[in-house]
From TrEMBL, chains A, B:
Keyword Metal-binding in record: yes
UniProt name for this protein: Geranyl transferase
Requisite cofactors: Mg(2+)
Annotated PROSITE patterns: POLYPRENYL_SYNTHASE_1 (PS00723), POLYPRENYL_SYNTHASE_2 (PS00444)
Family: Belongs to the FPP/GGPP synthase family.
Cited Pfam families: polyprenyl_synt
Source species taxonomy: Bacteria, Pseudomonadati, Pseudomonadota, Gammaproteobacteria, Pseudomonadales
Gene Ontology process terms (BP): phospholipid biosynthetic process; terpenoid biosynthetic process
């Protein structure tokens, strides 16, 4: 596997700067009375996260030969959507998690009501990011919005959240776990790649587009499997959230279904599948290749 | 004031049937495991509400000379967004309301976690409704999506929700109440009219478009003022929710700022302003005129 020369920490710094810039514009408040709401939203968004989804969007755009600025709206949208999902996931009504990314969860820092509303506002802002004027044509942006809406809704992220809750305390089958993970984590990761590819000029259902979607499916599954592994073997400080949280709540994970070694093997298979999907691409997809490794090998 | 012959209960029945049909399509689940989530969403959407926002969307489309089918996506979107906002508003973290539209609130019927997620899913579905293929051009639908995103986000509905919470227990000024109401209730009502007008062919910033937005601002404020009045004098059974709920929670209302008679006078002024804004329209805006009366004179 060749590593393209634009892949690396300098490239990631440039992309994170683009992302931060876009997010700060979207999170600029218009009324002093709303300052605290924007503070809460900003607290939930600007934290040292992996920025996996925005990096996927930029890298998929690049793989299709597009410029980064075409993917700015997508990168912000997927990070905002991800932030909202974590905030609501951490609420007392769901995971009741006290720590997120190494600091108090939003509902702990700002109160439950503010966290609920900040999450709601961030979801809307994610759609606003896609609807804003950009170099991408109206027709393509509308298709992206449809992709984002499906990925966030009952047949996507929200549906996965619901299944995760519904499966807690049961002994789920591997199929049930797979469906839950596909919706809860996979849908947004897949949408990040798909929308990034569209921003880069990909035409839906062409060979390259289908290949990128296949890549996205594989790493989406790999991401959740790795999460499940880290929940069992992870270092709580590095992870920045309570290790064993899912285990304690008797939730459905790949580890509880396959065992630790089985889950590790499964993650490696998924990585191989993701890399194979990119076979038709040259060095323009090296960033995507590296991200696939990051997903499977990360420690937090 | 002339009442156009298409205004009336038969017309409303036709429009409600269009709306129901569109909503049922959007609320059709794809996986048996998600049935309960869709049940919860459907419970929160299909209740004998006023359907004010969809009727405003259809009527604004009609006022601009458009056909009803152009506004179907907008009508569904605003009803879904409204339903989500009520569901989250009723959660224990916010109003902790037990009754909504005459029956147990969603969190009472399905549990708090399911209500939280169902609300999240409905917001996403509202955007999906606008992004779906329709007779309206991609450029216009993209503009609608931007309007919807702003109306739902931190400078709209979510912001109003936040201010409502922040002002509780204070003695707010009239300006503070007005800002809260403009965001919490006005933004979505205004968006319903604006998006309906766009679906009907209105060009942004033309005289007719500006007139419709002015109309929408007035009835948006009138709606909340009437709500505040009904919270003090309303019949609990007719209203289908706990009367005096806002009063008990010491929340900011037009009545607490202006007194009961002052609030009534204010509502009449707003009605007059809404009707005046429609002066340049003929009978094609009679449905909007009637809806303005409904808003100010309703008992529930």
């Amino acid at each position: 596997m060749r590593i393209h020369k634009t892949v690396g920490s300098e490239r990631n710094l440039i992309l994170r700067a683009r992302l931060d810039n876009g997010l700060r514009k979207l999170l600029t408040h218009s009324s002093p009375s709303l300052e605290k709401l924007y503070d809460a939203m900003t607290y939930g968004v600007f934290e040292p996260g992996k920025c996996l989804r925005p990096l996927l969007a930029y890298s998929a755009c690049e793989a299709m030969g597009g410029q980064f600025d075409a993917a700015d709206g997508v990168a912000c949208a997927v990070e905002l959507m991800h932030a909202y999902s974590l905030i609501h996931d951490d609420l007392p009504a769901l995971d009741d998690a006290l720590v997120r990314r190494g600091k108090p969860a939003l509902h702990v820092a700002y109160g439950e009501s503010a966290a609920l509303i900040a999450g709601d506002a961030l979801q809307a802002l994610a759609f606003e990011s896609l609807a804003q004027p950009s170099a991408v044509s109206a027709g393509i942006r509308l298709q992206m919005l449809a992709v984002m809406a499906r990925a966030a809704g009952p047949a996507g992220l929200a549906g996965g959240q619901f299944l995760d809750m519904a499966l807690a305390g049961t002994r789920p089958t591997l199929e049930q776990v797979a469906e839950m993970q596909r919706l809860k984590t996979g849908a947004l990761i897949e949408a990040s790649v798909v929308m990034g590819a569209m921003a880069g000029g990909a035409t839906v259902e062409t060979n390259r587009f289908v290949a990128l979607r296949k890549y996205a499916e594989q790493i989406g599954r790999a991401f959740q499997v790795r999460d499940d592994i880290l929940d069992v073997v992870g270092d709580r400080v590095a992870l920045g959230k309570a290790v064993h949280a899912d285990q304690h709540a008797d939730k459905s994970t790949a580890v509880s279904s396959l065992g630790l070694e089985g889950a590790r093997h499964y993650a490696r298979q998924l990585l191989l599948g993701a890399l194979t999907a990119l076979d038709a691409f040259g060095p323009e997809a090296d960033a995507l290749r590296q991200l696939a490794h990051v997903v499977v090998e990360r420690d937090l």
